[in-house]
Amino acid sequence: MVLSPTGKIFVDGNPIVLHELLDKLCGNAFCGNTRVRIFAGSACRFDHLADVYRLCKQHGINNVELVA
Length: 68
Known about the structure:
Elements: E1 2-3, E2 9-11, E3 14-16, H1 18-26, E4 35-40, H2 46-58, E5 63-67
């Protein structure tokens, strides 16, 4: 996933709404084995990163990694 400085999220080059994607991928199942890598530049705001992290944790994703 790529996080833009404006807070938009892209997966495979396409803009997405993260909570909708996670709902679709995880459904009612626990996504504990899922790995999320966030690619964010220095211009990205911390609150945007925190929102992505929070949504992943809410869906049971334990392995969330920030890649500069």
